Amino acid sequence: MAPKPIVKSHFGTERDKFDVYLNLDNGGGKIRGAWLRENDAARPLFEAAFQLFPDMGVTTVTLRNTSGTDRLSFDDAGLPGFQFIQDPLGLGTITHHSAADTYARVVPEDLMQATAVIASLVADFANQEQMFPRKSF
């Protein structure tokens, strides 16, 4: 018997209280945009939010999918979950998720850029009058 997905079981009865999940999990590289995984209703919100950051290189909003990230559980449960597009900085090499994946490899400027982008989006999305749009199935 397959394990019950944690996100689906936790938010199954409280879907109306959940707004949006933003995931930064592809290493320490700068944010360049967001994968919307076919949630076209979210496009205008990300495009508007990213207008603050063109000088930081945050410009891409794509409906395409990316695999293997923690936000998939949210998306699969019908809740809006998004992965940021990042500079790779060795993602997929022997350092990723290994003992060599340490703070010593973090690029401080990239971490500051990502922090500014995420903090801005969290504040912006949290202050929207409507709940974050769900993907149409």
Essential attributes:
137 residues, alpha/beta, Aminopeptidase, four-stranded mixed beta sheet
Summarize the structure in words:
It is a single chain. The chain is of the alpha/beta class and 137 residues long. The protein has one domain (21-126): Aminopeptidase (3-Layer(aba) Sandwich). Helices cover 28% and strands 12% of the residues. The protein has a four-stranded mixed sheet with strand order 1-4-2-3. β2 (31-35), α2 and β3 (60-62) form a beta-alpha-beta unit. The mean pLDDT is 84.
Short account of what is shown:
With 137 residues, the chain is α/β, with parallel strands linked by helices. The chain has 4 helices and 4 strands. It has a 4-stranded mixed β-sheet.
